[in-house]
């Protein structure tokens, strides 16, 4: 295995907030599934639990693996990431019949007062029924795929981390809606006959083929960002685009045609059966399931003597919500590397270097990432030594220097270092590359601005507080009828 390929495989960037949500979802599902098995509710067999957990694992891989780290350099990696999010993760999650295990695994108070009533509400039924109608699901999938592959929208997602995350979230959400009629997760009911899913999947494959063909047969690079960044693995930007379109064509067709073929074979081989008396079914109502939730002692005998079971359940729910909310808000505040941009690229001697940093640089510790390539072949050089120094023009060069290393970078093809630049204004960065007896020097300007004085608004914490307030008002609104009932008057006995 080549050193470059090893470096690619080691390029992982674990998103803290997404990882926390995925792990928490897996724990809630497993807890609920275990409680259901213990209670004798066996309508979610082990293979469904394995399917759900596999879907969560693939989702984490799509967001953390080298596919995410390299998606700003290689369109092929970005396309593989999209294929996982749209073609593999959603059907696996739906095959896990997630509703009952997830509801069962929640704190009792949350399941009884919030999730259960919401899932059984007429609004949820109407909205869910409208979104999962096959025609609507097919249109949503098509609109999302074509809209995000428009060059302007795609470039925006590459430049701004928030838009990139919105792109991935919309891919995952609309794909879950699309695959709903195909998988039909229990206990939902099909809107169309099972045989209708064959043309449904074939139309989706046609949409995928059209978009893939645009990428494969285009005679120009559709996304300028990939033409501007250094090329990796010997592929030009146009060749990378063709390869990405081919991957989308092949994997997408496989994901659509295989289940369509399986459904067609199942439909054609089925034999009509005589009507049989309806067998006894397991309860399919969320409220019926919640009624079987056991009362779990949380705070011990001391609290049980002073509070009712409902009060203890409410206290446990609040504690879990606050702890999980604080963890999520804290992890969501972690800065992302998705907003990095190319600041300098030049060739000198036997080397070609490219320097990446945040789009807007503030005075202080300035992180810089450097890619070193062979000038003749564009091969990545992993054994080069990179030294950085900086000074302001017209002033004696201070000793502001650092040596870059791979340990500081998520992308193991790049070496990173923090330069401590104390003041705003224009700086000159001197970069020296050494490999064996060969040396090359580079110099480029860097514009710094003063750090913003205003305190950044804690959006993640505010979102948790707002969500908590919405839950509180929903609880008050749901129980309002208990407080407005007129008192019962007893007439005197005759």
Give a short summary of the structure.
The chain folds into 3 domains: 3-269, no CATH class; 295-333 and 460-480, no CATH class; 340-448, Macroglobulin (MG2) domain (Immunoglobulin-like, Sandwich). Helix content is 54%, strand content 14%. The protein is built from 19 helices and 8 strands.
Structure description:
- By secondary structure, this protein is an alpha+beta fold.
- It starts with a helix and ends in an 11-residue tail after the last helix.
- It folds into 3 domains: 267 residues, no CATH class; 60 residues, no CATH class; 109 residues, Immunoglobulin-like (Sandwich).
- Strand 2 and strand 3 form a beta hairpin.
- The strands form 2 sheets. Strands 1-2-3-6 form a 4-stranded antiparallel beta sheet, with no helix packed on it. Strands 5-4-7-8 form a 4-stranded antiparallel beta sheet, with no helix packed on it.
- Helix 3 packs antiparallel against helix 5 and helix 17 runs antiparallel to helix 18.
- It has 19 helices and 8 strands.
- About 6% of the residues have low confidence.
């Amino acid at each position: 295995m080549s050193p470059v390929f090893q470096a690619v495989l080691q390029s992982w960037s674990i998103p803290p907030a997404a990882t926390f949500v995925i792990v928490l979802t897996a724990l809630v599902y497993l807890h609920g599934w275990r409680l259901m098995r213990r209670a004798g509710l066996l309508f979610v067999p082990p293979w469904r639990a394995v399917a759900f957990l596999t879907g969560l694992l693939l989702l984490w891989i799509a967001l953390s693996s080298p596919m995410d780290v390299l998606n700003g350099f290689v369109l092929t990696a970005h396309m593989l990431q999209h294929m996982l999010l749209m073609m593999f993760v959603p059907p696996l999650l739906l095959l896990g019949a997630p509703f009952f295990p997830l509801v069962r695994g929640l704190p009792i108070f949350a399941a009884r007062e919030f999730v259960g009533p919401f899932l059984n509400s007429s609004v949820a039924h109407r909205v869910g029924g409208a979104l999962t109608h096959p025609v609507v699901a097919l249109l949503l999938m098509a609109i999302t795929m074509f809209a995000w592959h428009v060059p302007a929208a795609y470039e925006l997602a590459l430049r701004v981390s928030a838009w990139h995350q919105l792109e991935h979230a919309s891919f995952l959400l609309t794909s879950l809606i699309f695959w709903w009629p195909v998988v039909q997760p229990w206990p939902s009911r099909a809107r169309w006959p099972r045989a209708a899913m064959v043309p449904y999947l074939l139309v989706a494959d046609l949409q995928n083929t059209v978009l893939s063909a645009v990428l494969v047969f285009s005679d120009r690079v559709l996304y300028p960002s990939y033409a501007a960044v250094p090329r990796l693995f010997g592929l030009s930007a146009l060749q990378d685009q063709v390869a990405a379109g081919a991957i989308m064509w092949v994997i997408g067709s496989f994901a659509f045609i295989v289940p369509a073929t399986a459904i067609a074979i199942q439909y054609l081989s089925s034999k009509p059966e005589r009507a049989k008396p309806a067998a006894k079914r397991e309860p399919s109502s969320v409220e019926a399931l919640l009624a079987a939730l056991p009362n779990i002692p949380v705070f011990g005998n001391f609290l049980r003597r002073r509070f009712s079971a409902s009060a203890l359940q409410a206290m446990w729910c609040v504690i879990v919500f606050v702890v999980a909310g604080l963890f999520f808000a804290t992890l969501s505040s972690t800065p992302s590397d998705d907003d990095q941009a190319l600041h300098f690229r030049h060739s000198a001697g036997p080397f070609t270097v490219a320097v990446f940093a945040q789009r807007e640089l503030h005075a202080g510790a300035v992180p810089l990432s450097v890619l070193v390539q062979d000038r003749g072949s564009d091969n990545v050089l992993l054994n080069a030594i990179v030294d950085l120094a900086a000074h302001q023009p017209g002033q004696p060069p201070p000793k502001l220097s650092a040596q870059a290393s791979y340990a500081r970078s998520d992308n193991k093809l790049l070496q990173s270092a923090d330069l401590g630049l104390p003041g705003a204004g224009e700086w000159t960065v001197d970069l020296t590359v050494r490999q064996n007896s060969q040396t090359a020097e580079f110099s480029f300007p860097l514009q710094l601005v003063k750090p913003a004085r205003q305190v950044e608004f804690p959006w993640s914490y505010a979102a948790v507080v707002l969500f908590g307030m919405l839950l509180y008002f929903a609880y008050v609104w749901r129980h309002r009828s208990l407080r407005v009932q007129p008192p019962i008057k007893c007439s005197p006995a005759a």
